[in-house]
């Protein structure tokens, strides 16, 4: 793996994690106790975290295109599956979401399955 491929891979995972985290934060900030759908969407539209998420996903798109132009798709999918772990850790550390043993086992199964599919 060249340094360019490695940087694209890390950039893709980091930007995807940033985007998911920003979207979650924007969704949380848009809630109120007596929430009407119309004001909530208006609050979301002007939320800086929503726009951070959109920018991040635009950059993920560009990184992904560059990445899959250099790496076979079957290998790229394997490498990109690391975002499952980074998003889960982001949720845990930023939003205090629980990481249960069952979730850890599920993540291990997913990663194992992706590896098996990639090898085959």
From TrEMBL:
It comes from the Bacteria. Keywords: Membrane, Transmembrane, Transmembrane helix. InterPro entries: EamA_dom (IPR000620), EmrE-like (IPR037185). Gene3D superfamilies: 1.10.3730.20. One of its GO terms (cellular component) is membrane. The chain crosses the membrane at residues 49-67, 73-95, 102-119. Residues 47-117 form the EamA domain. The keyword Transmembrane helix applies. This is EamA domain-containing protein. The lineage of its organism: Bacteria, Pseudomonadati, Pseudomonadota, Gammaproteobacteria, Orbales.
């Amino acid at each position: 793996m060249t340094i360019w491929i490695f940087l694209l891979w890390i950039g893709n995972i980091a930007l995807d994690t940033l985007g998911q985290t920003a979207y979650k934060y924007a969704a949380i900030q848009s809630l109120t106790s007596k929430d009407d759908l119309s004001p909530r969407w208006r609050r979301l539209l002007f939320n800086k975290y929503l726009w951070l998420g959109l920018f991040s996903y635009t950059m993920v798109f560009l990184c992904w295109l560059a990445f899959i132009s250099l790496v076979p798709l079957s290998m790229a999918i394997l490498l990109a599956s690391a975002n499952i772990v980074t998003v889960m850790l982001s949720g845990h550390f930023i939003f205090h979401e629980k990481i249960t043993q069952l979730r850890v086992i599920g993540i291990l199964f997913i990663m194992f399955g992706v590896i098996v599919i990639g090898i085959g």
